[in-house]
Amino acid sequence: MGFLPIAVAIFGFVLLWAVVNYNSLLTRRDQIRKMEEESKELEKRRHAILAALEKLLSQLSIIDPELSLQLQQIPTARSVKTKQLSTDVKLRLQQTVGLQNHAEVDTLLNRLEDTDFHLYYAQRKLQQSILVYNKLVNRMPSRIVATLSGFKSVSENR
Asked: Would you list the domain boundaries of the chain?
């Protein structure tokens, strides 16, 4: 009779630990999905701002091949490089004749800068969350719960 209560207590502890670990992994995975959606939404907003900027420039009949090239490069660039490209485009637009003190261009540029900041922050936060989740999934003893529950590592290149 003395061994049975000890075995039940140990089993209860292991079961409780597994449930807590499972909920932790589930919460982190859902958090990553939410951050990915937020990041995609910010990228869509950014593309819309760039499209509006290009449309405005074509309406104002401003043709600058270098500026057009920079505007096309912005959507494909990532993180810090993106911030530099956006800054370069902003300076180039401010120096372009006919756009100095143009309210609509300034508004679009400010929105682009704000979106770039939020996108950069969201991507950094997403990378950190993926790193923490992958550590949880790949380290023992959480790996046991992850394997039994079907949790897998998340690719950082998402």
From this structure: 8-149
